[in-house]
Amino acid sequence: MNLGPFSAVSKSSLAFGLLSASIVILLTTAFVRLPGAHAGPPGASSTQPPTYLPSISDMMIGTIQPRHERIWRAEQAGDWDFVAYELGNLRGAFGRLGRAHPMEQNTPLPDMIASVTKQPFEDLKVAIDRRDGAEFGKAYDELSEACNSCHQALNHGTVVIGRPAGAAQSDLIFGKAGR
Question: What are phi and psi of 133, to 5 degrees?
């Protein structure tokens, strides 16, 4: 057999290389065709990365509830700048929740969120701008009650939100920014 430019390569080395390449191709093809080998629903395009959509509960526990609590803790520490910052973050988190879950139990969630949080958010903003602790406490309680009304309406009345009690478990240090 004349191997032309490959004459320096032994026949056994060439055969081993071709066999190895064939096995890799076969295994790759078999894996790609296995059911469940791709992330995502059946029939989904393999060019699309899998998406993760946090549940409403995940978003509440991981994003909204911590911001709600930090608003309270920061006000108690007198860090009004951080209170204002977290109020903006809380509004944004509720907006993302509504966009991620536009319907819940046949209810337009963005509309429900807006209807119950609009006034408490406005009242909190006024209290923060005035740096009025009493006004803030009233508005904070109104926001907590707004949260609870949604929980009731969506059959999650066991989840009750209020003022944080006890020592904070956070690593945030209030009132130290820029020092």
Answer: -60, -40
Residue 169, judged by CB atoms within 10 A of its CB (0-12, 13-18, 19+), counts as: exposed
Q: Which amino acid is at 68?
A: H
Token pair, residue 68, equals 């709600």
Query: At residue 75, what is the residue type?
Result: E
Which residues lie across from 104 on neighbouring strands?
Answer: 107
Write down the residue that tokens 């429900």 correspond to.
112
What pTM value is reported for the model? 0.69
Number of other CB atoms surrounding residue 6 within 10 Å: 11
Per-10-residue mean pLDDT of the chain, 179 residues long, equals 53 56 53 47 68 93 95 96 98 96 94 96 98 98 96 93 83 69
- Angstrom distance (rounded) from CA 82 to CA 7: 75
Which pairing describes strands 103-104 and 107-108: parallel, antiparallel, or unpaired? antiparallel
Token pair recorded at residue 35: 């059911």
